[in-house]
Specification:
Layout: E1 2-6, H1 14-32, E2 38-41, E3 45-46, E4 58-63, E5 66-68, H2 76-79, H3 96-108, E6 111-113, H4 128-132, E7 135-148, E8 153-168, H5 173-182
Parallel strand pairs: 2-8
Antiparallel strand pairs: 1-4, 3-4, 5-6, 7-8
């Protein structure tokens, strides 16, 4: 599962828009809560540690990168691309556990890659970080909600439908001051 954290932008009008969107999201979540039980956000909205200021909140979005195949692929060329860039075998992994799991699903031909639904083209999965980290993006997402009655919690989960990077974040005033002092 790929997760992306949406943080509060530092510049206007984006930070105001973000706060407004969080307020609307709060109202939607509150309207769906089961009366009389607590709620839990399954990797969804969080405050920074020791802060309940709305401007410090962030949202966690997820995207399932690998989809389980119901049956082995009938057309092996669709399962493997020529350079193994957008395949299960070619997907970059960052931990040994993930690499071991990747070997297993590749040998079993049990999963296919579901690339992040970007509104722009990238050459390989390695380009995700350069394109998204620290940049503004418009994220369209669905909110899934279910109730765990045994633990008495509402669970909310945000899954990405599309993501459209729009421009790099402008430097914060602190970053600009650091640059000036470094001269």
């Amino acid at each position: 599962m790929l997760t992306i954290a949406g943080n509060t932008p530092v510049s206007q009008p984006f930070n105001t828009d973000y706060a407004d969107a969080l307020h609307i999201l709060d109202r939607i979540l509150d309207s769906r809560r089961e009366p009389g039980i607590g709620w839990k956000a399954s990797g969804f909205t969080f405050n920074d540690i020791d802060s309940f200021n709305r401007s410090s909140r962030y949202v966690i979005f997820s995207h399932p990168l690998f989809e389980i195949l119901n049956s082995p692929p009938t057309n092996i060329s669709k399962y493997r691309d020529r350079y193994n860039v957008w395949t299960t075998a070619g997907w970059p992994m960052s931990t040994s556990q993930a690499t071991n799991e990747q070997r297993e699903i590749v040998s079993n031909e049990s999963h296919i890659v579901r690339p992040l639904p970007l509104a722009t083209f990238i050459d390989s999965p390695k380009d995700y970080h350069a394109l998204l980290a620290g940049n503004l993006a418009v994220i369209t997402f669905t909110v899934k909600h279910w109730i765990d009655r045994s633990h008495r919690v509402d669970i909310f989960h945000a899954e990405i439908v599309t993501i459209d990077p729009i421009l790099p974040l402008p430097p914060s005033p602190d970053d600009m001051l650091r640059r000036l002092l470094a001269i």
